[in-house]
């Protein structure tokens, strides 16, 4: 088997593993940016195919989701993340959605633009390893987390998109000690625990607090999901965890089709 064929096989195995979570899972971290992009391409292609089978009158409802997936894919591999996020926020129209995975903070941020305001939501993407390992079966979680409605008059100010974009881009890369999980050594000192996920406090609490200065808490419906994940490692530095990209788009898909307030032209109750 050639090197290219071996890589294609590993990418296919990654896609199957992280979508279906079969009984036999890897015993080590298998994440790469290339594999995550391939996973997102499969999801986007499937969504496009599904849309093509819908009645013509229903196809338009899928346009915001398809565009959200395209934008998410662009920012996943972007070499200029700040500029791309700023451009996407500036170009948002009523009914459109943006979703961002803030990897270093273990969080997702979702922007939903309505006619008069933009609702900005956030939530944790990978539960703590201790919660996953202690659960009998799947974890039951509520989504999204905090949500703030910011008037579009604020969103459209020249200074707002670049400041928000810069914050999200920095948080995507910065590993902050105060958010990281720690392990206590026998000598009493604490070290960062790389095998566990970070606490999303800088997104779900800090960013939410900043946005509260411009808007107000949004009273939105929430969904409950059974989360399939696992923590597995054997002779490896980092454990296997389900792709962090899976939850943001899955949550948004379920919320979009479960609640009509996401549709173009809708107003928040």
Would you kindly provide a written description of the structure presented here, covering whatever features stand out?
The protein is 43% helix and 16% strand. The chain is built from 10 helices and 9 strands. A hairpin with a 5-residue loop joins strand 6 (182-184) and strand 7. Helix 4 (63-76) packs antiparallel against helix 5 (81-90). Residues 264-269 have low confidence and may be disordered.
Question: Secondary-structure map with pairings?
Answer:
Blueprint: H1 3-20, H2 33-52, H3 56-59, H4 63-76, H5 81-90, E1 97-102, E2 107-113, E3 117-124, H6 129-134, E4 139-143, E5 147-151, H7 152-155, H8 160-173, E6 182-184, E7 190-192, H9 201-212, E8 216-217, E9 223-227, H10 246-258
Antiparallel strand pairs: 1-2, 2-3, 3-5, 4-9, 5-8, 6-7
Search tags:
269 residues, alpha+beta, 5-stranded antiparallel sheet, two-stranded antiparallel sheet, 10 helices, 16% strand, globular, disordered C terminus
Summarize this structure briefly.
With 269 residues, this protein is α+β, with helices and mostly antiparallel strands. Helices cover 43% and strands 16% of the residues.
Total helical segments? 10
Task: Give the DSSP E fraction (strand runs of 2 or more residues).
Answer: 15-25%
User: What order do the strands of the largest sheet run in, or round the barrel if closed?
Assistant: 1-2-3-5-8
Give the rounded overall mean pLDDT. 87
């Amino acid at each position: 088997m050639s090197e290219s064929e071996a890589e294609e096989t590993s990418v296919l195995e990654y896609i199957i593993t992280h979508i279906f979570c079969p009984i036999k899972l890897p015993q080590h971290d298998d994440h790469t940016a290339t594999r995550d992009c391939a996973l997102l391409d499969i999801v986007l292609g499937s969504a496009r195919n599904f849309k093509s089978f819908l009645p013509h009158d229903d196809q338009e409802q899928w346009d915001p989701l398809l565009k959200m997936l395209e934008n998410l894919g662009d920012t996943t591999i972007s070499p200029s993340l700040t500029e791309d996020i700023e451009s996407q926020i500036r170009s948002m129209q009523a009914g459109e959605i943006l979703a961002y995975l803030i990897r270093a903070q273990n969080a997702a941020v979702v922007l939903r633009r309505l006619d008069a305001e933009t609702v900005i939501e956030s939530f944790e993407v990978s539960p703590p390893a201790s919660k996953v390992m202690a659960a009998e079966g799947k974890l039951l979680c509520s989504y999204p987390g905090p949500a703030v409605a910011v008037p579009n008059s604020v969103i459209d100010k020249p200074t707002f998109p670049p400041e928000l974009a810069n914050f999200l881009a920095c948080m995507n890369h910065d590993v902050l000690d105060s958010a990281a999980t720690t392990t206590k050594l026998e000598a009493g000192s604490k070290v960062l625990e790389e095998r566990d996920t970070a606490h999303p406090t800088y997104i779900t609490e800090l960013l939410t607090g900043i946005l509260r200065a411009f808007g107000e808490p949004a009273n939105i419906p929430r969904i409950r999901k059974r989360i399939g994940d696992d923590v597995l490692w054997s002779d490896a530095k980092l454990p296997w965890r389900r792709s962090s990209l899976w939850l943001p788009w899955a949550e948004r898909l379920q919320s979009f089709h479960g609640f009509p307030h996401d549709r173009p032209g809708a107003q928040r109750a």
